[in-house]
């Protein structure tokens, strides 16, 4: 069995070397420069030595915690490994610090286009065996919003951190080290390493700084946003050569909730929006479900609504590609083992047969629970609209959105159930933002700074205690002022009855 020992860090720092473990291999961090003449504008750097020879079947890398269950690292770190041991909350890895948390992972995802020879698409994900609870020493790093994707970060100051070697022949550091370096253009970096694609980003090393053996997979951060994953550098950490990183412009963990608006000018009648809300009164939304979907490619978070003792209504894009689901009912604080919580498995997921992933239409699905649940004060069924309400467009009505999703576009998911009220707008108003919004969808305006965000997909839109919508999509990155769009439940009553046997 091959094992990768990962050190993940953010506010959380995690490392890979338990006390007494000193003979770990380093995964390859280096390439041979295409020139022996270092351009003067890159400046000198003091990092030297040679790469450690291959030894054993375990190796050290770094990583960044990007969700309670995911660590972002390099593809060359997870490549060939069967499992990983992740250390979070560490500073001095030789000490048994009270802040340290050790989490195992048996699910490692390597980018499908990773090319070991060219070291391209060098990015991977570690799916932790169980979620971690964030605290002052363990927290999640922000990923770049989609609006920053074209940003090349040229000349920006960025921080590299890790427990790797402090020189090419030196020892790894027992304490977490950090250094700041300036981001180069890819054309500058290509003068050293040949063709450096746009999926990579380089730092100059001016002032004798950079990454070295053991830092692979670790973070490159600017303005508290993760923009790079340590990939490679010159063989042996020679003085003056750049460090290269896989660019961090990616969103993970959540199934797609977003589309690109067709306009940059927000109509005034929709108003501004800050994606946040208030904590729900514990167990006041007893039909709310917290769902973790599992597939060969990974796991993701969605919401849902209990509509019968054996059925949860959610979004088609949530069930799409999944093999099974773990459904949490009766929860308020998902980080706690509350006595009210019930965990139910499902191996039967129903996606609407006409679901269109590109147009995001017919975005509705059903989870069939492996066994019926018993109703309690904390777990109950939400009412579906009577057939007589089918023509109702609910225009201008106040409706409630709820979920454990992100409270900001770049923020963390909420540990407690959040709720917010918003006004329903007409489909013609919503179409001015997203193009053609069909009658099978319903939108809320977001006026007052409210709406759905990552992780809320599949969750409920309710008015007068009746489920009228299923969270489907919104503007990329939870942009301020844009509507949230839902699948309209009244359009799917026949489909729901046909697939569940619920008489409506």
From TrEMBL:
Record-level Gene Ontology MF annotations: serine-type endopeptidase activity
Cell location: Secreted, Extracellular space
Biological-process GO terms, alphabetical: proteolysis
Domain Peptidase S1 per the UniProt entry, residue ranges: 46-267, 274-501
Regions annotated as coiled coil: none
Source domain of life: Eukaryota
Signal peptide: 1-16
Pfam families with a match to the protein in the record: Trypsin
Keyword set, alphabetical order: Disulfide bond, Hydrolase, Protease, Serine protease, Signal
Gene3D superfamilies with a match to the protein in the record: Trypsin-like serine proteases (2.40.10.10)
Major subcellular site: secreted
GO cellular component: extracellular region
InterPro entries, sorted: Peptidase_S1 (IPR050430), Peptidase_S1_PA (IPR009003), Peptidase_S1_PA_chymotrypsin (IPR043504), Peptidase_S1A (IPR001314), Trypsin_dom (IPR001254), TRYPSIN_HIS (IPR018114), TRYPSIN_SER (IPR033116)
Family label: Belongs to the peptidase S1 family.
Protein name: Peptidase S1 domain-containing protein
């Amino acid at each position: 069995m091959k094992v990768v020992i990962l050190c993940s860090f953010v506010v959380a720092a995690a490392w890979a070397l338990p006390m007494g473990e000193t003979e770990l291999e380093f995964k390859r961090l280096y390439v041979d420069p295409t020139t022996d003449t270092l351009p003067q504008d890159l400046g000198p750097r003091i990092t030297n030595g040679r790469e450690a020879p291959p030894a054993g079947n375990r190796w050290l890398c770094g990583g960044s915690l990007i969700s309670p269950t995911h660590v972002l690292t390099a593809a060359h770190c997870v490549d060939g490994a069967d499992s990983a041991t992740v250390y979070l909350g560490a500073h001095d890895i030789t000490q048994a610090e009270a802040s340290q948390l050790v989490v195992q992972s048996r699910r490692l995802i390597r980018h499908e286009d990773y090319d070991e020879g060219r070291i391209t698409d060098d990015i991977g994900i570690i799916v932790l065996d169980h979620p971690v609870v964030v605290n002052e020493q363990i927290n999640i790093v922000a990923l770049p919003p989609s609006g920053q994707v074209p940003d090349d970060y040229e000349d920006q100051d960025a921080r590299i951190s890790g427990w790797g070697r402090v020189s090419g022949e030196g020892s790894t550091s027992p304490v977490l080290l950090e250094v700041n370096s300036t981001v180069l253009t890819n054309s500058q970096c290509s003068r050293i390493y040949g063709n450096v694609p746009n999926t990579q980003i380089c730092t100059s090393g001016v002032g004798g700084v950079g990454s070295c053996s053991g830092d692979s997979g670790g973070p490159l951060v600017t303005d508290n946003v993760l923009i790079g994953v340590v990939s490679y550098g010159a063989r042996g950490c020679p003085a003056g050569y750049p460090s290269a990183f896989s660019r961090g412009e990616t969103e993970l963990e959540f199934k797609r909730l977003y589309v690109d608006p067709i306009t940059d000018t927000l109509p005034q009648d929709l108003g501004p929006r800050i994606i946040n809300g208030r904590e729900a009164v514990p167990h006041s939304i007893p039909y709310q479900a917290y769902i973790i979907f599992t597939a060969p490619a990974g796991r993701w978070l969605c919401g849902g609504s209990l509509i019968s003792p054996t059925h949860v209504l959610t979004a088609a894009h949530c069930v799409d590609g999944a093999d099974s689901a773990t459904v949490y009912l009766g929860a308020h604080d998902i980080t706690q083992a509350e006595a009210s919580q019930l965990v139910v498995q499902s191996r039967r997921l129903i996606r609407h047969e006409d679901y269109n992933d590109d147009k995001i239409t017919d975005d509705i699905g059903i989870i069939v629970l492996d066994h019926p649940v018993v109703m309690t004060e904390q777990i109950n069924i939400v009412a579906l609209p009577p057939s007589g309400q089918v023509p109702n467009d609910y225009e201008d009505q106040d409706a409630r959105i709820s979920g454990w999703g992100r409270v900001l576009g770049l923020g963390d998911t909420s540990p407690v159930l959040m709720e917010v009220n918003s006004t329903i707008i007409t489909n013609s108003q919503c179409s001015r933002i997203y193009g053609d919004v069909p009658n099978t969808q319903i939108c809320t305006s977001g006026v007052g700074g409210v709406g759905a965000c990552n992780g809320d997909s599949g969750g409920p839109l309710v008015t007068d205690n009746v489920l009228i919508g299923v969270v489907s999509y919104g503007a990329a990155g939870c942009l301020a002022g844009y509507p949230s769009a839902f699948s309209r439940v009244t359009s799917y009553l026949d489909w729901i009855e046909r697939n569940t046997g619920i008489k409506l």
